[in-house]
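ok so dumb question maybe but i'm new to this and my supervisor (M.) told me to 'just get the structure for Branched-chain-amino-acid aminotransferase' and walked off. so i did the thing. is this what she meant?? sequence i used:
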Amino acid sequence: PSPIRRCATLSDTFRTETSELADIEWDNLGFGFLPTDYMYLMKCAQGGSFSNGELQRFGNIELSPSSGVLNYGQGLFEGMKAYRKQDGNILLFRPEENALRMRLGAERMCMPSPTVEQFVEAVKATVLANKRWVPPPGKGSLYIRPLLMGSGAVLGLAPAPEYTFLIYVSPVGNYFKEGIAPINLIVEHELHRATPGGTGGVKTIGNYAAVLKAQSAAKAKGYSDVLYLDCVHKKYLEEVSSCNIFVVKGDVISTPSIKGTILPGITRKSIIDVARSQGFQVEERFVDVDELLEADEVFCTGTAVVVSPVGSITYLDKRVSYGEGGFGAVSQKLYSMLTRLQMGLIEDKMDWTVEL
Ligand code: COI
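this is what came out, is it supposed to look like this??
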């Protein structure tokens, strides 16, 4: 059926489907994909602008085997979450930040991108259309995955002639199988995630494919994930495969500065502001791998991982442990402040949440 016909039937199905909670086991959500009801699609020709976006039933999409995204990795993604409040309303967290980050990434990847307003409106429409998939309070969140890809056909290396912006959603719980228990990291000393002048600072799909080899090897040895070092000096912390990293020593919290090879996480940025508002000194700078030996606490931040305490880090033949099997005091405090704000349990003095 054509998109137009699908749209005509949307509002009827919509009313019944959004009136209740989806019939799934809400207690044991992990971070696996669960198909939901609707996705959002919007297209644009190279040199043009995005328009006529619409909701469609969730399903497979058609792509030319010669599309820019399949052949040359011309693609970006975003990650966001929506929480259900006690009163049933839904909260988004800083959606315009994701929109802006996608615009910066699109510029790096020679792609047109939706305006901030188009992006945020599309996210709202997709979440509302899939409202029954937003977990009950305390059971998790609805993960929102906006994609931007070169969908037009190319053969020689060049920007694609057509682009697709797509949003799909899936209910999720904790990212790591450890739940909110501390994760165990291994420092990777051969493979690197990003290089100066490369694309480490934008959310291009290739950055994530590039870490799979080290991540799979680490998981096979029982580690939760990999911590990358800079590729020039091979001694400064960069980030974990899917999240940013913070090191706590006394009242000082340090995190690698954004310098082109590190993904500018929105949770990272928010945690820095929350920590400063609580009187911590936060330093964005080069963090030497040896500082891990002296740290009181280490934690990771990201949309998917939220704030995850690190229980141990292995580097070459040394293993250093933190805490006693749970959150350290600083990471616990920051986790609690951020998540209570995201879930609407405390007043949002930062004006970060958007209520639907
Ligand atoms: C996120 O945290 O939302 C991300 O995009 C990371 C991804 C690997 C799950």
